[in-house]
Amino acid sequence: MRFLRIEQMSLWCRRLRVLTIKELLQLSRDLALVFVIVYAFTVDIYIAGSGVSLQLNHAAVVVMDGDHSRASRELIYRFRPPYFRLDGEVPDASTGICLLDQGKAMALLDIPPDFQRRLEEGRSVAVQMQIDTSNAVLGTLAAGYAGQIVGKYSMEAALARTGLTEESLDTLPRIEDRHRVWYNPNQNDAWFIAIAELMTVITILSIVLPAAATVREKERGTIEQLVVSPLTPTQILLPKVLSMMLVILAGTAVSIFLILDLVFAVPFKGSLPLFFAVTILYVFSTAGIGLVAATLTRNLAQVGMLTILILAPIILLSGIWTPPETMPTVLRQAMFLSPLYYYVEMGYAILLKGAGLKILWDSLLGLSLLGSLLFGLGVWRFKRQFK
Predict the structure, then answer these.
(1) Average pLDDT estimate for 283-310
(2) C-beta of residue 251 within 8 angstroms of C-beta of residue 174
(3) Is residue 48 within 8 Å of residue 197, measured between CB atoms?
(4) What is the pLDDT of residue 184?
(5) Strand partners for 86
(6) What share of the chain has pLDDT > 70, as a percent?
(7) What strands, in cross-sheet order, belong to the sheet with 128-131?
(8) Nearest-10 crossing angle of helices 357-384, 233-254
């Protein structure tokens, strides 16, 4: 009896190995899909990391100086690189607004008349800053930096009027609000965006590739031959998922060592084997979604359309672009239904923070439970369509 079980186990493993090789061979013959995979793990991640910036860099500022005094010139001079650059003076507000509308300037600094006299008299004076916020992120940063510049100038002007200096304040008790960035201290957007794009690519391919492999059998009419063969539904589906998982892991390794490490110099503080282990679990989890999509479609075009509908809520509810803290309560609760949410939490924590299983056990447990449900649903749907 024991020998029979060993023989059955050996036969099962042999079938798994042969079918996995068969899936890899079929994938290698699909040159268009191979090109998409190579492009996604290399060029796409490079473009995302180098082409998208969330940092304010040399934003063009035009000035309408109604005072032309020493104080106004001092304030204008403070809007300098790396955050701002001065692009000259405009004669009136309508000209400045026209430059904002045309995208030739990002901000219009309006200094009122009698600016210096009011400061010397100790009276309040308002400075207006009109900002182009068509890019909401950069516009918010510009408003924040401008507020800091004007606020610091205002404090220095008040101190000068009272005969004090910043050095003299060191002898007085005061509260300072100092922020220190522990992870990504230089706030390099390429680190964050490149890793985010990698996890997005893994999500897309882990859904599309198993679905495409299954639907391809339908298009070629070979799925019925597999069903009537001495193979269980699990033995038919598992090689498809396993082969695509190997392809995704290879692409992930290329992205990490070739793009993230060599090009963007991302400092990997955590365990890469742990990250690959989490990636394996995540690929199996999202592959179940691809198997469900394959049972609902008849060709690759339908798979692509259905995948778009599935991916949209998964990505939007993952927190990869929108912080969970800014979402409404209902959407924050719905995030737990997105497998990418758990992967993002663990991916950033492992790669940038060096976190281990003691910290990530709850996210790992959530992904395991959700992944088991999704993969089981995919196998169940595959069995049901042939009954």
Answers:
(1) 83
(2) no
(3) yes
(4) 72
(5) 61
(6) 90
(7) 84-89, 59-65, 107-111, 128-131
(8) 140
Report the pLDDT value the prediction gives residue 199, as an integer from 0 to 100.
93
Contact 209, 290 (CB under 8 A): yes
* 150 contacts 127 by C-beta, under 8 angstroms: yes
Query: In whole numbers, what is the pLDDT of the chain averaged over residues?
Result: 84
Cα Rg of the chain, angstroms:
29
**For the whole model, what pTM was predicted?**
0.77
User: pLDDT tens-digit profile of 161-206?
Assistant: 776 666 666 666 777 777 777 777 777 777 888 898 999 999 999 9
- SS3 string, the chain, reads CHHHHHHHHHHHHHHHHHHHHHHHHHHHHCHHHHHHHHHHHHHHHHHHHHHCCCCCCCEEEEEEECCCCHHHHHHHHCCCCCCEEEEEECCCHHHHHHHHHHCCCCEEEEECCCHHHHHHCCCCCCCEEEECCCCHHHHHHHHHHHHHHHHHHHHHHHHHHHCCCHHHHCCCCCCCCCCCCCCCCCCCHHHHHHHHHHHHHHHHHHHHHHHHHHHHHHHHCCHHHHHHCCCCHHHHHHHHHHHHHHHHHHHHHHHHHHHHHHHCCCCCCCCHHHHHHHHHHHHHHHHHHHHHHHHHCCCHHHHHHHHHHHHHHHHHCCCCCCCHHHCCHHHHHHHHHCHHHHHHHHHHHHHHHCCCHHHHHHHHHHHHHHHHHHHHHHHHHHHHCCC
- List, in order of start, the domains of the chain with CATH numbers: 11-52+187-384 (no CATH), 59-169 (3.40.1710.10)
Q: How far is CA 125 from CA 70, 93, 114, in A?
A: 15, 18, 9
- The type of residue at 295 is T
First to last CA, the chain: 32
Confidence of residue 228 (pLDDT cuts 50, 70, 90): low
Q: Is the pLDDT of residue 276 over 90?
A: yes
Reported as a pLDDT band with limits 50, 70 and 90, residue 58 is confident
Instruction: Report which of residues 269 and 236 the model is more confident about.
Output: 269
